[in-house]
Amino acid sequence: MSLIEELQTTVSGIGASVGPSIVGIGRGTRGSGIVIASGRVLTNAHNLRGDEVTVTFADGRSGRGKVAGFDRDGDLAVIDIDTADATPVEWADGNGVAVGTAVLGASASHGGGTRVTFGLVSAVAQAFRGPGGRRIDGSVEHTAPLAPGSSGGALLDLTGRLLGINTNRIGEGFYLALPADAALRSRIDALARGESPVRPRLGVSVAPAHVARRLRRSVGLPPRDGILVRDVEDGSPAAEAGIEAGDLIVEVGGRPISDVDDLYTALGSVKPPYEVMLVRGTDERSVQVGEATTD
């Protein structure tokens, strides 16, 4: 048997064995999901629009699932639903993958059934931003083609074991998956118990530091490191503290802020009330932020 024939046999076999464990998420297959235990489906948080969602199985059966746990920043969600006889996907050993590892992408097909594609791991320890803007580190980059609606589907090894959760398309034929390691399993177990993570937030949208510098320069203001507030949510901790659009956030809880990652890091280490240093025009001022809301 030739190498191509062996690969064809492998892909066909995995499609048949793992296919029933791959589901469509949302009407019109907005995304994909993975049966990880009896009555439990894993998907990306960005595939969901509420506390319930339509789940479609490979055999055409569909039902309404209820979100057990939701992590917007980590882009993960666990759904409770009757999985009937769909066998949970087997996890790999969690030791990670190396560049050049052959992988398969498995996702729900819009026409029903399962789509399986072949590729190679092209890089590891990659980063991207989740739906809430926070940086997600440690992802696996690969070349197994993913059609729209594939996010939340499985990245598999050539024995059909779970290596990751396909999450993000980065263009030019490259895709990112959250690695199916021990840390991810722990987070998923917590979500399945209904323990959605609580993270503090200000309630602002911001511009990158280089945009802030350019805008300050254009109106004749002196340069200053920080992130520019573009908008403030009504009723948010930022609004209640008096933070306004156009303010430059330069420090949070005593930590200097030069980019959005600094902001998220600082927010993760403070407890309300905490101090935020601002520059408004040429004036530097301090505000106290009280009880932070959560995503």
Describe this structure as you would to a colleague:
Helix content is 17%, strand content 41%. With 295 residues, it is of the alpha+beta class. It has a six-stranded antiparallel barrel. Strands 7-8-9-12-11-10 form a six-stranded antiparallel barrel. The chain is elongated and about 75 Å long. It starts with a helix and ends with a strand.
* The number of domains: 3
What is the helix/strand order? HEEEEEEEEEEEEHEEHEHEEHEEE
Approximate shape: elongated
**What's the pLDDT, averaged over the residues?**
93
Helix run count: 5
* CATH class wording of the largest domain: Mainly Beta
- What is the terminal-to-terminal distance? 54 Å
* Strand order in space, largest sheet: 1-2-3-6-5-4
Task: Provide the descriptors you would attach to this structure in a database record.
295 residues, alpha+beta, Thrombin, subunit H, Pdz3 Domain, six-stranded antiparallel barrel
Fold topology:
Elements: H1 3-18, E1 22-25, E2 31-37, E3 40-43, E4 52-56, E5 62-71, E6 76-80, E7 102-108, E8 114-129, E9 135-142, E10 154-156, E11 162-171, E12 174-179, H2 182-192, E13 200-201, E14 204-207, H3 209-218, E15 227-232, H4 237-241, E16 248-252, E17 255-256, H5 260-267, E18 274-280, E19 283-289, E20 293-294
